[in-house]
From TrEMBL:
Function: Thought to be a Golgi-localized beta-glycan synthase that polymerize the backbones of noncellulosic polysaccharides (hemicelluloses) of plant cell wall.
SUPFAM superfamilies named among the record's database cross-references: Nucleotide-diphospho-sugar transferases
Native organism: Arachis duranensis (Wild peanut)
Protein name: Cellulose synthase-like protein E1
Compartment(s): Golgi apparatus membrane
Lineage start: Eukaryota, Viridiplantae, Streptophyta, Embryophyta, Tracheophyta
Length: 744
């Protein structure tokens, strides 16, 4: 290898094009926002007897918040960067023995919500990475303590002996068997070819495995005949319940074991099943606790210097992504500064127009590169490649880190392979004890941090505050694919958890607003605060969704007339903001209808998820409720799935969030109809912006009206929600007409 090849970096960083033009546009938008603020202050009613004085003041506060929040969002677009790794250079520079060991963590918690077949497809996909198998170790943490999940993994360990050679031989993508077989068929190859015969053979092996696992899942137990054939099942003899059981660990595959080879005689990756000890009276700290148990156990079994964690529904979609991530982590010039590489979450079940906005297109395509420009993205809990020592609390030291990663200690010798597997399992059980972390730094300064619904974000922030940087890498072929929510309640609950966790971070001792001051760049502080303050958007958005419509019904003007010069900043900011958002969405491979759906979900999240997240946070701070972790369903019922594919919005229950959305939708409809009935089309000339706002709110809520009155399927709103929402919305409109709200 020549000198030029040795000095060539393993990745490059590119700045976004057109930044100067965007900054000029942003400056003009800010001027427009300033003029709106000036208008609100200048024309605020001075006399208490004037109609709408307090509403006007509320509008000023809302527009003040929207403007300030827009400035925070601007920071995410101020200096975006994009990364490009060079895995070919990595392969030339490092042979297999010099590559670091990699420990991969897959976490599951409930076999009913997260079916075992889905879990093992994820496990098999990461076992099949294009990476030296003797350097790979895969750990499945099962917080459900399910013997059926263990049985599924046991079967997967046997299937892997055939699947990994098949993937390597035919360069298979993706390497999740279920996803691959869905994308190809035997007709892909000519019927006489060896390829077709091997495909049929491997598919038959998979279907046989799937059949016996699905049968065990339906029965709810593993047959006694099967249990007697493997010693691992004996660990369930003392099993009481998923919340009360001893530590369980089984090393299913290990390089020391002569049977841990595939059909070609190649050593398979280490494969370990574990379920930490659970007791009803001991806090287990949800996924963060599981991750910390994995960090400890893996340190004595394989001790890989790189850790990848994935959710059980996020299979590896790109066999090269592991080597691509390594390009950042072991680059000779910059790699020693980087603690983790975050990839975006992709979803395989998205509809064409993404009815629930689950793809998070703008966040992943525009905002995370913006965070990367200020020092690195946040850690989002899945699809993230870490250096082990940074997860364990190590502070950044430039010289020490440079020596560590450029020295001889870059490879993993797996020195524990001489120890008996049984002894390893016994040692590991002590690390899985529910009391092991008592009086230690685990969950405080080591591992993932506790006490927050989004433990991943707070952990990533703590790592960055210790001086480390992170990298955002968004490959053309998504590194991981998972499952997006298929019903509106699921989507709203998911965003409630995210936003609530973000707000908890803001109020905690790890807050980016003040505790991170001087430890990370000011730009990164602002971007963290942008996400942490999601919940506070509920108040001005609710206000804007209610009072302009109410004042339209009363004939009270809240915006300038079209003939007024003050109309110009409102028109410019509205058109400019929506045009920019639409273009960003389209450049992120979205559709126009998808943008409309995304806008609808933007409204629904702010008026329901964020509101209930704010209320829950207040109650928790007062000691009325404790932290809870909600697992999202990963498999939808058949009828629900069919409606989702047709992009028919799913309601189906009477949750408070859905009731609130239905009430707001009906209230806006009644106000618009009432105003037009009283003033006719003349309202459009007198109160144009209020009419426009009400029309947009009504149009965006069309799926809700269909679910309330037109649909007959099980995905419609329950009758109780229809009556409750109509009663509240009508009451509000009637009360406004009898001058109950005259003083506002």
């Amino acid at each position: 290898m020549g000198k030029n090849e040795e000095s060539h970096p393993l990745f490059e960083t590119r700045r976004a094009k057109g930044i100067f033009i965007h900054r000029i546009f942003s400056f003009s938008m800010f001027l427009g926002i300033l003029f709106i603020w000036v208008y609100r202050v200048s024309y605020m009613p001075r006399k208490s007897s004037e109609d709408g004085k307090w509403v006007w003041f509320g509008m000023f506060l809302c527009e003040l918040w929207f403007g300030l929040y827009w400035l925070m969002r601007l920071s995410l677009r101020w200096n975006p960067v994009f990364r490009q790794p060079f895995p070919h250079t990595l392969s030339q520079r490092y042979d297999d023995d010099k590559l670091p060991g990699v420990d991969i963590y897959v976490c599951t918690a409930d076999p009913e919500i997260e079916p075992p077949m889905m879990v093992i497809n994820t496990v098999l996909s990461v076992m099949a990475y294009d990476y030296p198998t003797h350097k790979l170790s895969v750990y499945l943490s099962d917080d459900g303590g399910s013997d059926i999940t263990f049985y599924a993994l046991l079967e997967a360990s046997n299937f892997a002996k055939h699947w990994l050679p098949f993937c390597k031989k035919f360069n298979v993508e993706p390497r999740s068997p279920a996803a691959y077989f869905k994308s190809v068929s035997s007709t892909t190859y000519s019927n006489d070819s060896i390829n077709a015969k091997e495909l049929v053979t491997i598919k038959k092996l998979y279907e046989d495995m799937e059949s016996i696992i699905e049968n065990a899942s339906k029965v709810g137990e593993v047959a006694e005949e099967i249990r007697s054939k493997h010693k691992g099942f004996s660990q369930w003899n003392s099993f009481s319940s998923r919340r009360d059981h001893d530590a369980i660990i089984q090393i299913l595959l290990h390089g020391k074991d002569s049977s841990a080879k595939d059909i070609d005689g190649i050593v398979l990756p280490t494969l370990v099943y574990l379920s930490r000890e659970k007791r009803p009276h001991v806090a287990h700290n949800f996924k963060a606790g599981a991750m910390n148990s994995l960090i400890r156990v893996s340190s004595i079994i394989s001790n890989g210097k790189i850790i990848l964690n994935v959710d059980c529904d996020m299979y590896a979609n790109n066999a090269q992504s592991l080597k691509e991530a390594l390009c950042f982590l072991i680059d000779e010039e910059k790699g020693h500064e980087i603690a983790f590489v975050q990839t975006p979450q992709g979803f395989e079940n998205l509809t064409k127009n993404d009815i629930y906005g689950g793809a998070l297109r703008v966040i992943y395509e525009w905002e995370f590169p913006g965070m990367d420009g200020f020092g690195g993205p946040m850690y989002i809990g899945s699809g993230c490649f870490h250096k082990r020592d940074t997860l364990c609390g190590k502070k950044f030291n430039d010289q020490e880190s440079l020596k560590h990663w450029n020295g001889e200690d870059i490879n993993n010798d797996q020195s524990m392979t001489k120890t008996s597997l049984h002894l390893l399992e016994q040692k590991s059980k002590a690390l899985l004890s529910c009391t092991y972390e008592n009086n230690t730094l685990w969950g405080k300064e080591m591992g993932l941090l506790y006490g927050c619904a989004v433990e991943d974000v707070i952990t990533g922030l703590a790592i960055q505050c210790r001086g480390w940087k992170s990298v955002y890498y968004n490959p053309k072929r998504k590194a991981f694919l998972g499952v997006s929510p298929t019903t509106l309640p699921e989507a709203l609950v998911q965003h409630k958890r995210w936003s609530e966790g973000g707000f908890q971070i803001l109020l905690s001792k790890y807050s980016a607003a003040w505790c991170a001051y001087g430890l990370i760049s000011p730009g990164l502080q602002i971007t963290y605060c942008f996400y942490n303050l999601w919940v506070l958007n509920c108040l001005p958005t609710l206000y804007y969704s209610i009072f302009p419509s109410l004042c339209l019904l009363k004939g009270i003007s809240l915006f300038p007339q079209m003939s007024s010069p003050w109309f110009i900043p409102y028109a410019y900011v509205t058109l400019g903001e929506n045009t920019q958002c639409l273009l960003e969405f389209l450049w992120s491979e979205g559709t126009i209808k998808g943008y409309w759906n995304d806008l609808r979900m933007w409204l629904y999240k702010r008026t329901s998820s964020y509101l209930f997240a704010l209320i829950d946070t207040i109650f928790k701070s007062l000691g009325f409720s404790s932290l809870a972790f909600v697992i999202s369903a990963k498999v939808a019922e058949e009828n629900v799935s069919q409606r989702y594919k047709k992009e028919i919005m799913e309601f189906g229950n009477s949750s408070p969030m859905l009731t609130l959305l239905a009430t707001l939708a009906l209230f806006n409809l009644f106000c618009l109809v009432g105003a037009l009935f009283k003033g006719g089309l003349g309202m459009l000339m007198v109160l144009p912006l209020q009419v426009l706002l009400s029309v947009v709110l009504v149009l965006i809520n069309l799926p809700l009206y269909e679910g309330l009155f037109l649909r007959k399927d099980k995905g419609r709103f329950p009758t109780s929600v229809v009556f409750k929402s109509m009663a509240v919305a009508l009451s509000a409109c009637v009360l406004s007409n009898v001058n109950v709200f005259t003083t506002i």
